[in-house]
Amino acid sequence: MILIGIKPKNQLSIKSLKKTFINQNKQLFGKEIYLNQLSYTNNQKKVKIHDSWYFELKEEFEKKYWIELSTKVKNSYKNKIIFPKPSLMFNAFNSTHLNNVKVVIIGQDPYHGQGQANGLSFSVNDGIAIPPSLLNIFKELESDLNIPIPFSGNLQSWANQGVLLLNTVLTVEKDNANSHKDLGWEIFTKKVIEIVSSKLNNIVFILWGKQAQSMEDVIDTSKHFIITSVHPSPLSAHRGFFGSNPFSKTNKFLKSKGIKPINWILNK
After folding, report:
1. What is the pLDDT of residues 2-52, one digit of tens each?
2. Which residue in the list 51, 109, 126, 220 is annotated as catalytic?
């Protein structure tokens, strides 16, 4: 077994290498830290992300910014409490495969409270209190489509239908909002948006707030539909988010292109 970055003769004698850190890196970057060689075949991934995305993004994983980003993120997970847990970092991509994308909802960074972040923008797991921004999203959903506010903030069913719930930054330090801003995630997620725009047709991009709207310049407006408003945060929602009707507008566009609309109802 060869651990990248550590001389083979020293690897088995390093007592400070804890099991939790090893498992964390497995979740983060797949099996590459356990390879028997330092070169990769076509079947070996450097990042644990669905094949549909890996094929399009694999060149990104060779770039200097990604190497620096991954090093910083791995060190953060080793030394601090970081959300979401590593296995959920690419949950948006693993839940919504590239060819299944119909809608992209771009958030900012993950929730920074204990147990909140699950790798899908704006979403929280069942049993977690609904955060204020998500509650405002549900209020707008109720106003727009007369769908009652759900009991759970888990948006997995949206992701399963082709709604890519993507944050511009994929990790965050506990209780420190935007702490991983400018680490390099924005370069990566902008490339993701560029790929969706170039490879697919008739996608609805929902851009709430300035951070999400910074991605607009890589979206081909000749073949996609963009919905913008202020962020659903309580600080801004009353300045144009409420009454923007993004859900009905999304389904109207999808129907006009012969695409099955999204069932936004979350309550079972």
Report:
1. 444 444 444 444 444 445 454 555 566 554 433 333 333 445 677 889 999
2. 109
Do the Cβ atoms of 36 and 2 come closer than 8 Å?
Answer: yes
Name residues whose C-beta falls within 8 Å of residue 88's C-beta, 6 or more positions apart in sequence. Answer: 117, 118, 119
pLDDT in tens, 111-139: 999 999 999 999 999 999 999 999 999 99
Quick one: which of 114, 150, 125, 117 has its CA closest to 135?
150
- Cα 254-148-258 angle, rounded to 5 deg: 10
Reading across the β-sheet that carries 225-229, which strands appear in turn? 163-167, 103-107, 204-208, 225-229
- Gap between the Cα atoms of 81 and 136, Å rounded: 28
> How far apart (Å, rounded) are the C-alpha atoms in residues 26 and 6?
16
19, 49, 266: which is closest to 142 by C-alpha? Answer: 266
pTM of the model: 0.83
**Both structure tokens of 9:** 């003769």
Residue 138 backbone phi and psi in degrees, to 5 = -65, -35
The yes-or-no answer on residue 109 being catalytic is yes
Contacts of 69-76 spanning 24+ positions with Cβ under 8 A: 69/183, 69/184, 69/185, 69/187, 69/188, 70/28, 70/29, 72/183, 72/184, 73/28, 73/171, 73/180, 73/183, 74/25, 74/28, 74/29, 76/171, 76/173, 76/180
Nearest to 26 by CA among 82, 90, 87, 113: 87
Backbone φ and ψ of 217, nearest 5° = -70, -10
C-alpha separations of 243 from 64, 155, 232, 256 in Å: 43, 21, 11, 22
